[in-house]
Design a protein that fits this description.
alpha/beta; Spore Coat Polysaccharide Biosynthesis Protein SpsA, Chain A; 3 domains; 6-stranded antiparallel β-sheet
Length: 484
């Protein structure tokens, strides 16, 4: 009998990816970065791109933080994908609520589709092999099973969760194995023990399940997740291409993983081995492992100069980085922060980020480059009462019609063409031309051209926060003082 069920990818974009700080931060986390040296796409784009050969593939459902909605929409547009839904979580609640929301949404459109649930933060070397195993998982899921995938461990990894199976894992077998339990990220000593036991596998976080099977098990084993998710979707609002969950309903939903909320309790859970060069690239050592290296074992990116350097990873986003007489180090340079770490210590970057947050370092959370639906801006310099930004407006895009209570602005066009609206009057500005926006004047900036518009903005005022915006019109559905 031929299979005709729709396969809906569910792409989970939560998480801050703090182990790849300072490139990955809450304001622009790992899944949206193009830091896989084997790909020209972001992790999110790669996650969708590798599914092209799956039969009966439907448009994806993407679950993300509300702050990242325009980044998700833009990265999907870049690869010519129009998601079925982009569901915005007001705050993270782990994978069980996200999968519940996707299952409910999937059934609204299809009778009982099969969900292919994927974290948006992993890399896979053998994509053809991955497709073959996914097809096998789909066949298993059609029998009302919930399938996950275990990676045969190749090292005592402390950054991954583990799955314990009821039988030894045979990577040559296509036969699913029953799950016994899940383990959180272990200590180094326990990880060394687990790698010697063939019943253990790394937890990929990938699932395949019929939407109705998932919902039935969630309602049975996690009603404290199921019912708040139902209510939050029922009372959601449509915002352009996005679905905004009802915050009050979603707040009642407890935070838990699908592994512990459902998979450890259900009798429908099975594991298939996934031996295709999977890696979640969860730390800088993993980036070094998959990077092209020079004869001395160094991997570099950007403006880097080396002498007498061995086994190191050096990445420069902006400034020249020179390595002299160093060995087995990670050096990551960004516009506002530099990480220098022993490669073996890269697992613990997450702990440092937590400490930086506790000490109120803004660099722990935010980039100086900020993405908006119309383009991006980069904070060049600032002090009390003034700030300088470089603004990039995409072709055909416009900022909102707005005014400010506390600041004036001076725009200097660097490249491209700007259409400036000021108190109802419009004018065109080109390279080396400028204009002044007085306090309280209604204004809008647009790019009518086919090339990016780049300008320098000088702000002056008693308060320069991004929430000093009163919007009157906006192409992207933003309201009031909403900053992003």
């Amino acid at each position: 009998m031929s299979r005709k069920k729709k396969i809906i990818p569910v792409i989970l974009c939560g998480g801050s990816g703090s182990r790849l700080w300072p490139m990955s931060r809450e304001s622009f986390p790992k899944q949206y970065l193009k830091c896989n040296p084997q790909s020209n796409f972001s992790f999110l784009q790669d996650t969708q791109n590798r599914l092209k050969k799956i039969e009966y593939l439907d448009d994806p459902i993407v679950i993300c933080n509300a702050e990242h909605r325009f980044v998700v929409a833009e990265q999907m547009r870049q690869i010519n994908i129009v998601p079925d839904s982009i569901i915005l979580e007001p705050f993270g609640r782990n994978t069980a609520p996200a999968i519940t929301l996707a299952s409910i949404k999937a059934i609204e459109k299809n009778d009982d589709p099969i969900l292919l649930i994927l974290p948006a933060d992993h890399a896979i070397v053998d994509e053809d092999g991955f497709m073959n195993i996914i097809q096998n998982g789909i066949i298993t899921a059609e029998k009302d099973s919930i399938v996950t995938f275990g990676i045969p461990p190749t090292r005592p990894e402390t950054g991954y969760g583990y799955i314990e199976c009821e039988k030894d894992i045979d990577t040559n077998s296509k036969k699913p194995i029953k799950i016994k339990k899940f383990l959180e990220k272990p200590s180094k000593d326990i990880a060394k023990e687990l790698i010697m036991n063939k019943k253990y596998a790394w937890n990929s976080g990938i699932f395949i399940v019929k939407a109705k099977v998932a919902l039935k098990e969630i309602e049975r084993f996690a009603p404290e997740i199921y019912y708040p998710c139902v209510d939050s979707l029922k009372n959601s609002t449509k915002d352009l291409d996005f679905i905004r969950l009802n915050k009050e309903s979603f707040e009642k939903c407890i935070s838990n993983s699908f592994d512990f909320a459902i998979m450890e309790k259900t009798n429908k859970g099975f594991v298939l081995p996934l031996n295709v060069g999977w890696d979640d690239i969860g730390n800088w050592d993993a980036i070094w492992e998959i990077s092209k290296k020079d004869p001395s074992g160094n991997a570099t990116s950007g403006r880097v100069f080396l002498e007498n350097t061995q086994g190191s990873l050096l990445i420069s986003e902006d400034r020249l980085v020179v390595g002299l007489g160093i060995k087995n180090l990670v050096v990551i340079e960004t516009h506002d922060a530099i990480l220098i770490a022993d490669k073996e210590s890269s697992q613990y970057v997450k702990n440092i980020v937590s400490k930086l947050k506790n000490e109120k370092y803004e660099e722990a959370i935010k980039h100086r480059k900020n993405y908006r639906p119309w383009g991006s801006y980069f904070s060049i310099a600032e002090d009390k009462g003034w700030q300088v930004k470089r603004i990039n407006v995409n072709p055909g895009a416009s900022l909102s019609l707005q005014k400010h209570k506390f600041r004036t602005e001076h725009w200097i066009i660097v490249t491209g063409t700007a259409l400036v609206e000021l108190e109802g009057k419009t004018k065109i500005l080109k390279s080396n031309e400028s204009t002044y926006i007085p306090l309280g004047f209604k204004h809008r900036l647009s790019n009518p051209g086919k090339e990016p518009l780049i300008l320098i903005e000088v702000q002056s005022g008693s308060y320069l926060g991004e929430d000093d915006i009163i919007r009157f019109e906006d192409d992207y559905g933003r309201k009031g003082t909403e900053a992003n």
